[in-house]
Amino acid sequence: MSLKDWIKESNNIVFFGGAGVSTESNIPDFRSDNGLYKKQYPYPAEVMLSHSFYESNPKEFFEFYFNQMIYKDAKPNKAHLALAQLEKQGKLKAVITQNIDGLHQAAGSKTVYELHGSVLRNTCTGCHEKYTLDQMLEFRDESGIPRCPKCNHIIKPDVVLYEEGLDERTMMNAIQAIAQADLLIVGGTSLVVYPAAGLIRYFQGKHLVLINKDKTSMDDIADLVIHDSIGKVLSESVELYD
């Protein structure tokens, strides 16, 4: 049996994805040779994206954030489009993503659980006014820190930084979706970031499929492992069901 066959026979598919899903949209991942963690900065990326660094060095935090985490020109790729198509067919019930770029929604996916938040949503730390990414960029002061025009407090991205906890409701929705799935497709993730990687243990369905260019620590528990381009694999697997 192939992934195509399993998709055809399944009616409750869940996709769980990581940074590798968006690399084909020219958004760098974290741990590959060209990833964010390999670039040279005054501090490691994990430090610069931490809550304590944001609190103590807001100027440097936002300089790094806007230069390395924002890709306004990125467009959905074949993987995003294939998943949106599966949802339209009624087969895919949820996308669970560790990405913060909003590309699943841009492709047309409706049920998306963003474990690490989104760069498209931003909140004033003072009056809690909500701002779009464009507004946040517009309201930067002379030092590059985005400030609320109503109360002058910092506008913080609704992104989960290191040292911050994941949103409890989002996690519960993701767990419920995985627990109810008959086919779980995991793609573009090294499965080393917890608690997100631990979500797989809630899967009790028929088939677990891992799609990733490199090996993962969970390859041995999967029913099918594909080391290839996720966009290629997913687009080929759903094209027969247009």
CATH superfamily of the largest domain: TPP-binding domain
Q: Poorly predicted ranges (pLDDT <50, ≥5 residues)? A: none
Q: Roughly how much helix do the residues carry, as a percent range?
A: 25-40%
Roughly how many Å apart are the termini?
Answer: 20 Å
- Helix segment count? 9
Class from helix and strand fractions: alpha/beta
Rg: 18 Å
Overall spatial form = elongated
Please give the domain count: 3
| Mean of all residue-level pLDDT scores | 92
CATH class of the largest domain: Alpha Beta
Strand content is 15-25%
Largest sheet: spatial strand order:
3-2-1-7-8-9
Largest sheet: 6 strands, parallel
According to DSSP, the number of beta strands is 9
**Pattern of helices and strands:** HEHHHHEHEEEHEHEEEH
CATH architecture designation of the largest domain: 3-Layer(aba) Sandwich
Briefly note the CATH topology name of the largest domain. Answer: Rossmann fold
Organism: Faecalitalea cylindroides
Subcellular location: Cytoplasm
Binding site for Zn(2+): 124, 127, 148, 151
Protein name: NAD-dependent protein deacetylase
Can you tell me about this structure?
- The protein is α/β, with parallel strands linked by helices and 242 residues long.
- It has three domains: 146 residues, Rossmann fold, CATH 3.40.50; 43 residues, no CATH class; 43 residues, SIR2/SIRT2 'Small Domain', CATH 3.30.1600.
- The chain is built from nine helices and nine strands.
- The protein has a six-stranded parallel β-sheet with strand order 3-2-1-7-8-9, with helices on both faces. A three-stranded antiparallel β-sheet has the order 5-4-6.
- β4 and β5 form a beta hairpin.
- α5 packs parallel to α9.
- The longest helix has 13 residues.
